[in-house]
């Protein structure tokens, strides 16, 4: 089987490099956490694996920046070939949507847990999603701007301040993130209310 050259996470990394310019692996992880969190998560090892792969493909270049008190900083920059790959990816239809959520998986197999355990998981989910909704709402006035000023360290700050030249596509995804969290919280609250009123599902049957 032929090895796939790139995955959605690959283009997430490419997109961040194209949007902000040269970045280190640490910078990319931070931007994944603050900017791409509503649609795609990544751990450090995944990001560094993609950077190595893209370097082999000629999609990025890497330079070392010397630091006095820390190890050298590896900074990656998108190449013209990498930008072409990013543009070509946009021309292809997206893959089928797939939601991966441990809480939903726990609820699906709730018959193997005590009713109290299921309720506890739902309550924890409400707390988590209330925090995410608050975070997304707070970040909306500080949407990323291409080429925005960096911190004195040279690292990008995705929420440095208000700017009228915000990217419209980041605003669209920001609105999606907020509406998704509101929808999820509504479902969590209704599901918890149902369980509290109806008791264990195996005795009362599933909700209509």
Keywords:
three-stranded antiparallel β-sheet; mainly alpha; Arc Repressor Mutant, subunit A; 208 residues; single chain; 2 domains
Task: Tell me about this structure.
The chain has helices at residues 8-20, 25-36, 44-57, 80-91, 102-108, 115-139, 168-198, 201-204, and strands at residues 23-24, 60-65, 73-78. With 208 residues, it is mainly alpha-helical. The protein has two domains: 8-91, Orthogonal Bundle (Arc Repressor Mutant, subunit A); 102-204. The protein has a three-stranded antiparallel beta sheet. The termini are far apart.
Could you give a short description of this structure?
By secondary structure, the protein is mainly alpha-helical. 57% of the residues lie in helices and 7% in strands. The protein has helices at residues 8-20, 25-36, 44-57, 80-91, 102-108, 115-139, 168-198, 201-204; strands at 23-24, 60-65, 73-78.
What secondary-structure arrangement, pairings included, does this model have?
Layout: H1 8-20, E1 23-24, H2 25-36, H3 44-57, E2 60-65, E3 73-78, H4 80-91, H5 102-108, H6 115-139, H7 168-198, H8 201-204
Antiparallel strand pairs: 1-3, 2-3
Helix pairs in contact: 1-2, 1-4, 2-3, 6-7
């Amino acid at each position: 089987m032929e090895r796939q050259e790139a995955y959605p996470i690959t283009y997430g990394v490419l997109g961040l490099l194209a949007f902000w310019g040269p970045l280190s692996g640490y910078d990319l992880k931070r931007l994944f956490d603050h900017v791409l969190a509503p649609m795609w998560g990544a751990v450090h090892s995944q990001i560094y694996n993609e950077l190595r792969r893209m370097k082999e493909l000629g999609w990025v270049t890497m330079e070392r920046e010397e630091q006095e008190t820390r190890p050298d900083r590896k900074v990656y920059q998108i190449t013209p070939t990498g930008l072409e790959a990013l543009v070509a990816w946009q021309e292809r239809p997206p893959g089928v949507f797939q939601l991966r959520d441990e809480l939903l998986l726990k609820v699906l197999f709730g018959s193997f847990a005590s009713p109290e355990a299921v309720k506890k998981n739902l309550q924890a989910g409400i707390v988590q999603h209330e925090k995410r909704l608050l975070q997304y709402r707070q970040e909306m006035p500080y949407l990323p701007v291409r080429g925005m000023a960096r911190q004195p360290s040279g690292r990008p700050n995705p929420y440095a301040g208000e700017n009228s030249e915000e990217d419209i596509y980041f605003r669209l995804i920001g609105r999606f993130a907020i509406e998704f969290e509101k929808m999820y919280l509504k479902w969590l609250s209704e599901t918890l209310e149902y369980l509290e009123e109806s008791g264990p599902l195996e005795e009362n049957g599933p909700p209509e």
